[in-house]
Write a structure and sequence with these properties.
Layout: H1 2-20, H2 32-51, E1 53-60, E2 65-70, E3 75-91, E4 97-107, E5 113-119, E6 124-126, E7 129-136, E8 146-153, H3 157-177, H4 181-190, H5 192-211, H6 230-256, H7 262-291, H8 299-318, H9 325-343, H10 350-355
Antiparallel strand pairs: 1-2, 1-8, 2-3, 3-4, 4-5, 6-7, 7-8
Helix pairs in contact: 1-2, 2-3, 3-7, 4-5, 5-6, 6-7, 6-9, 7-8, 8-9
Length: about 350
């Protein structure tokens, strides 16, 4: 709530500043979209949680069901019935599920019959509800005669999406406007050796990250990971880790040697944070499509948020006049340490081993 209020005040202040410039596009504050998008997403997601209804339904083959259970254990009667016609499962050679889905028949209030197949990552929309494939009888496996569906009613969804897309737009705008690409090209031409060293550093970080991300090399992805969001989500994070890793190396050099290229370092952080934000937003949209929620405070998500705020703190600290450069560099190193926890450290947490969808073996 405190963060939302602060964001609202910042948005009002930036709008007032822009208004004094008669809403000129050249005077448009680059960070206004990000603050406004985050404010809309957080506010509507918080307010919408009171109106959102999330229930689970266990459907048995050939038996129409219209009752579901909410998170408090109360029985909720739905405005339609669902009948499981067939549970579908495909497996890998080692027996792990490759795909599972439910072939269902829905009868709405007008007695209209709707046949559909609900897969993981492919929910069905009906009468304002989203129906997700949640689970099945694991003891029976492919021969399961029941299917567990999760149904979510979220009337605030379009407004939350508007906030998320505004935030995405602001990140793209930041990549285009905040980072001086033209000046960077000129500097590269002026100092080709430095440009080559920087490029080599970035590529080395990218290769290391690619090597140490086991999920990229897996040929047996679980159904939840078989999504169009998988590649952009992972690639965005790979780029973020690469750029922020290069920034960490440069911060160490700046602290221990006479190497001082703060403008380049800042651009790496800006770009890295932009891609991290894109990765987080893609993950939120993916989670909504797969499980019906944007954020579940999974250990990975929690540490990602901590890391994101840490780098955000660095960027805001750099905007303070007469800030201490050495402190800023240490903030970067602390942020990078948090990034390591977010990246691979969580797999050592007991809570992550028990429940996290981000722990891969």
């Amino acid at each position: 709530m405190y963060l939302t209020i602060i964001l609202g005040l910042v948005v009002l202040r930036q709008l007032r500043t822009w208004a004094t410039a008669k809403f000129s596009l050249t005077a448009f504050p680059s960070s206004l979209l990000s603050h406004l998008g985050l404010f809309i997403a957080l506010t509507t997601a918080t307010l919408g949680s009171a109106d959102m209804l999330r229930v689970k339904m266990v459907t048995a083959k050939g038996a129409p069901e219209w009752r579901a259970m909410d998170q408090q254990g109360m029985i909720i009667e739905l405005p339609f019935t669902i009948e499981l016609r067939q549970f579908i499962m495909e497996t890998y050679d080692d027996g792990k599920p490759k795909r599972y889905a439910s072939d269902i028949l829905i009868q709405d209030k007008t007695d209209k019959n709707i046949q559909a197949t609900i897969d993981v990552n492919k929910p069905l929309d009906i009468d304002g509800w989203k129906i997700y494939q949640f689970g099945y009888d694991t003891r029976m496996g492919a021969k399961s005669q029941t299917s567990i569906l999760e149904l979510v009613y979220d009337p605030w969804l379009p407004i939350v999406y508007a906030g998320i897309y505004l935030l995405l737009g602001s990140v793209i705008l930041m990549l285009l406007r905040v980072i001086p690409w033209k000046g960077s090209v000129q500097q590269a031409r002026k100092h080709p050796k430095r440009a080559i060293l920087l490029f080599t550093l970035i590529m080395a970080c990218f290769i290391c990250i690619h090597h140490f991300m086991p999920i990229l090399h897996s040929s047996t992805l679980v159904p939840a990971l078989q999504s169009p969001w998988f590649v952009p989500h992972i690639v965005a994070y790979m780029l973020a880790y690469t750029l922020l890793g290069a920034a960490a190396v440069m911060s160490v050099l700046s602290l221990t040697t006479s190497f001082k290229h703060m403008s380049v370092l800042n651009n790496l952080v800006y770009a890295g944070l932009a891609f991290m934000t894109i990765g987080m937003l893609f993950g939120a949209l993916w989670a909504k499509e797969a499980w019906g929620h944007y954020w579940a405070w999974d250990p990975k998500e929690t540490w990602a948020a901590i890391t994101w705020f840490s780098y955000l703190g660095y960027i805001h600290y750099r905007l303070i006049p007469n800030h201490k450069e050495k402190l800023a560099l240490w903030m970067l190193l602390i942020s990078f340490a948090l990034l390591q926890m977010c990246w691979w450290g969580i797999k050592f947490l007991p809570a992550a081993q028990e429940s996290s969808v981000h722990v891969y073996n």
